[in-house]
């Protein structure tokens, strides 16, 4: 009888310990259970599209998709509004993601975009993107400093083709720091970086500022030259020989950032899952090699840091938006 009681006591103790372990560890930790849609706020082939497709392949190799498909869905628009509408229509769905990026901050500041990140669920940041100012291979400008000198003498003397407010900021910030009257510079908007670069090669504009991934092909082929990069330090890859603005006497730098967000109302455990997935991506060798080729830098920030970053970014960029006459909230 006593022996049986001891066995019963042992069994009860194990059962209690097992129940305690179950209480401490969720029985069903969240992971993707259906196809994951990544809504790309631009057309195929651009920098955002390249990153979206690469991260899906890497997530699959790392076993972070739970055997589910990664489906990039291109929803191009000048402000990113179309991509954000998809998330608004799928509130609570943790299988739909889109980019959270500097362009959203700027489009909101100009009044072109009504949505703000607070209407969604920011998850993490994962890279810093650099911009470069390019000219034709036969351009009269041999450096960023030479271009600045010409613009200080006559702000209208250089025609700039560009796409996107973040690219425009990457140009305006160093020019303003160099003493150029940025309210008078000549700006020609285009629908894509490829279109702007083609216009430059045809002599319709003199220079094109752009994100480095969109410039690699023409730069490597020798069809264009990069005069300056906006990063605080030199880049690698195709941009290894391109000086920063600071190296040319202009005390300014600029980076746009890429992150990711989910719809409003997703389960907290899904947010944690994706936050961890992008943290792992940010140290993956294959991903780091892609960033190196594209002139980008890894920049992981968790959810709390991401919210802080975008609040500070908005505060920093608002005066420049107003000075350029782009509106301002």
Describe this structure in words.
The chain has about 325 residues and is an alpha/beta fold. The protein folds into two domains: about 35-130 and about 255-325, D-Maltodextrin-Binding Protein, domain 2 (3-Layer(aba) Sandwich), CATH 3.40.190; about 130-250, 3-Layer(aba) Sandwich (D-Maltodextrin-Binding Protein, domain 2), CATH 3.40.190. Helix content is about 40%, strand content about 20%. It contains eleven helices and ten strands. The protein has helices spanning about 1-25, 45-60, 80-90, 100-110, 145-155, 165-175, 195-200, 215-220, 270-280, 285-295, 305-325; strands at about 35-40, 70-75, 95-100, 120-135, 160, 185-190, 205-210, 225-230, 255-260, 295-300. The strands form two sheets. Strands 1, 2, 3, 4, 7, 8, 9 and 10 form an eight-stranded mixed sheet that branches. The chain has a two-stranded parallel sheet with strand order 5-6. Helix 2 (about 45-60) links the parallel strand 1 (about 35-40) and strand 2. Helix 4 crosses helix 11 (about 305-325). The model is unreliable at about 1-25 (pLDDT under 50).
């Amino acid at each position: 009888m006593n022996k049986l009681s001891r066995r019963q006591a042992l069994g009860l103790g194990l059962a209690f310990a097992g129940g305690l372990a179950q209480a401490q560890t969720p029985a069903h930790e969240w992971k993707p259970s259906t196809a994951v849609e990544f809504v790309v706020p631009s057309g195929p082939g651009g920098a955002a599209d390249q990153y979206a497709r690469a991260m899906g392949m890497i997530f699959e190799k790392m076993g972070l998709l739970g055997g589910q498909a990664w489906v990039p869905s291109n929803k191009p628009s000048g402000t990113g509004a179309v991509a954000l509408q998809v998330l608004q229509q799928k509130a609570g769905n943790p299988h739909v993601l889109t980019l959270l990026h500097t362009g959203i901050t700027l489009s909101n500041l100009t009044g072109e975009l009504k949505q703000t990140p607070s209407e969604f669920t920011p998850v993490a940041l994962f890279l810093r993107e650099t911009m470069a100012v390019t000219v034709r291979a036969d351009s009269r400008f041999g450096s960023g400093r030479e271009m600045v000198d010409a613009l200080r003498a006559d702000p209208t003397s250089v025609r700039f083709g560009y796409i996107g407010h973040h690219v425009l900021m990457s140009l305006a910030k160093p020019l303003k720091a160099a003493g150029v009257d940025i309210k008078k510079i000549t700006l020609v908007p285009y629908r894509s970086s490829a279109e702007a670069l083609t216009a430059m090669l045809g002599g319709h504009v003199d220079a094109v500022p752009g994100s480095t991934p969109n410039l690699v092909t023409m730069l490597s082929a020798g069809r264009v030259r990069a005069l300056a990069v906006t990063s605080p330090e030199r880049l690698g890859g195709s941009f290894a020989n391109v000086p920063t603005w600071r190296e040319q006497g202009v005390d300014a730098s600029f980076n746009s950032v890429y992150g990711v967000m989910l719809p409003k109302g997703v389960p907290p455990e899904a947010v944690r899952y994706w936050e961890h997935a992008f943290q792992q991506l940010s140290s993956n060798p294959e991903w780091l090699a892609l960033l190196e080729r594209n002139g980008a830098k890894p920049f992981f920030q968790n959810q709390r840091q991401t919210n802080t970053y975008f609040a500070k970014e908005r505060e920093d960029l608002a005066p420049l938006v107003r000075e350029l006459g782009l509106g301002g909230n």
